[in-house]
Amino acid sequence: MTRLRLLTPSLLAAYSLTVALESGWIREREEMVANQVEARGVVDPKVIAAMRRVPRHLFVPPELRAFSYGDFPLPIGEGQTISQPYMVAVMTEALSLRPGDKVLEIGTGSGYQAAVLAEMVDQVYTIEILPSLAARADSILKELDYSNIAVKTGDGYVGWDEYAPFDAIIVTCAPPYVPEPLIEQLADSGRMVVPVGEEGEVQTLILMEKIEGEILQSPLLPCIFVPMRSRRITPKR
């Protein structure tokens, strides 16, 4: 009993520090959503609620965690990044997600985008070509109890035919053209958001909709994403 009494003050101090830190993250997250998402025109309440819930700082490398809620992308290793919060919100809103949707993400990266999606739909399938990032994201998502996310290490160019068709597809890396397998795996009335363009150039974020087998394309905004990695991409001639 004496030992427990002696430990109590330190345990209380540790608990108080944890609560204070978490309160700080919540405050930063609220400010991020208000100033970077809502203030720029994102109006879907499901997107806004999801971004308020997902602890973005847990998907950022520890040494960069203080910048988690800044208005910019951050490096996560292997030459990859976690996208700017506004871009995550815009791409998610463009998918017009419904609760029962099945979503495919190409480019798991940190796992943050998958978590935002998983707050809104029944099932998310996400593919990452870099094994180290796939393993890290899978570990974080499991710790946060996202049981409706399946992570696969593989080439996102070919999609995930086993679980197709998908109601929505989101591509978080930039191919020079939209991979045909992804178009084939999009369900009728499905939506795909993908940044298209060459590496080192300003790309275009495109919304694609499949209507009775036909593909309608709408440009959304200019953007810059890391390039899609795949041996299946035909080099520019």
Description:
With 237 residues, the chain is an alpha/beta fold. It has one domain: Vaccinia Virus protein VP39 (Rossmann fold, 3-Layer(aba) Sandwich). It is 34% helix and 25% strand. It is built from 6 helices and 9 strands, in the order ααββαβαβαββαβββ. The strands form 2 sheets. Strands 5-4-3-6-7-8-9 form a 7-stranded mixed β-sheet. The protein has a two-stranded antiparallel ribbon with strand order 1-2. α1 packs antiparallel against α2 and α1 packs across α3. The longest helix has 36 residues.
What's this, in brief?
This protein is an alpha/beta fold. The protein is built from 6 helices and 9 strands. It has a 7-stranded mixed beta sheet.
Topology order in helix (H) and strand (E) letters: HHEEHEHEHEEHEEE
CATH class annotation: Alpha Beta
Domain count: the total is: 1
Q: What name is given to the CATH topology?
A: Rossmann fold
Count of helical segments?
6
Q: Rounded to an integer, what's the Rg over CA atoms?
A: 19 Å
Secondary-structure blueprint of this entry?
Elements lengths: L1 H36 L7 H9 L20 E4 L2 E3 L2 H10 L7 E5 L5 H7 L4 E6 L2 H13 L5 E5 L12 E6 L8 H5 L1 E11 L6 E9 L2 E10 L14
Provide key terms for this protein.
237 residues, alpha/beta, Rossmann fold, two-stranded antiparallel sheet, 6 helices, 9 strands, disordered N terminus
